[in-house]
Amino acid sequence: MAIQDLFFYLFAALTLLCAFLVVANPFTRNPVTSAMFLVLAIISMAGLFVLLHAFFLAAVQVLVYAGAVMVLFLFVIMLLDLKEEVRRHYKTFGVVTGLLSVGALAAIAVRAIWTSGVGAGLQPQAEGATRPLGKLLFTQYLLPFEIVSVLLLVAMVGVVLLSKKDLK
After folding, report:
1. Cα 106–chain centre separation
2. Which of 44, 46, 105, 168 is the most exposed place for a label (fewest CB within 10 A)?
3. How far apart (Å, rounded) are the C-alpha atoms in residues 76 and 70?
4. C-beta separation of 75 from 155 below 8 A
């Protein structure tokens, strides 16, 4: 096993672990902690890009997402003045319905990507060339690019909804 394989498994495991801790953080219910785990997941993903010799994408990943987007998320969290969140009681019906909905959407997305033929017949690009990268990103990979932008929007709306104070 080569050293690159070891680094791949290390960065992949760190990415998955940190992404899990963003959603299900057993240490604290503070949303700032989840945001910091998201920064760690983004940096681990940048390490995977470096292993693929995509240095430009790794730099953009760290600068744009770990820098600008996380500052925006932290600004929203701090602006909403969230305190240590008390444990909420979840209704079983809501949890089961939510899990079924997420599973159905994931199955639809996997089937759509599997049958679309995305990435078939791609030729390797020269390292560090940003023009072919941009051309591919906005032509052949436009759908995944837009999905990422929608996911960022959903995350922002989720932060606002989760921080909403219960009015009783």
Report:
1. 15
2. 168
3. 10
4. no
Domain at 133, CATH number: 1.20.120.1200
Domain contains 165? no
The string of DSSP letters for the chain reads: --HHHHHHHHHHHHHHHHHHHHHS-SS---HHHHHHHHHHHHHHHHHHHHHTT-HHHHHHIIIIIIIIIHHHHHHHHHHTT--PPPPPPPPHHHHHHHHHHHHHHHHHHHHHHHHHTTTTTPPPPPTT-HHHHHHHHHTTTHHHHHHHHHHHHHHHHHHHHHTPPPP-
Q: How far is the C-alpha of 134 from the C-alpha of 104, rounded, in Å?
A: 32
> Does residue 104 lie in a domain region?
no
- Is residue 13 assigned to a domain? yes
Tens place of pLDDT for every residue, the chain, 168 residues? 789 889 999 999 999 999 999 888 877 777 778 888 888 999 999 999 999 888 888 888 888 887 777 777 777 777 766 555 555 667 888 888 988 998 999 999 889 878 887 767 766 655 666 777 788 888 888 888 888 888 888 887 877 777 666 655
Does residue 22 sit within a domain?
yes
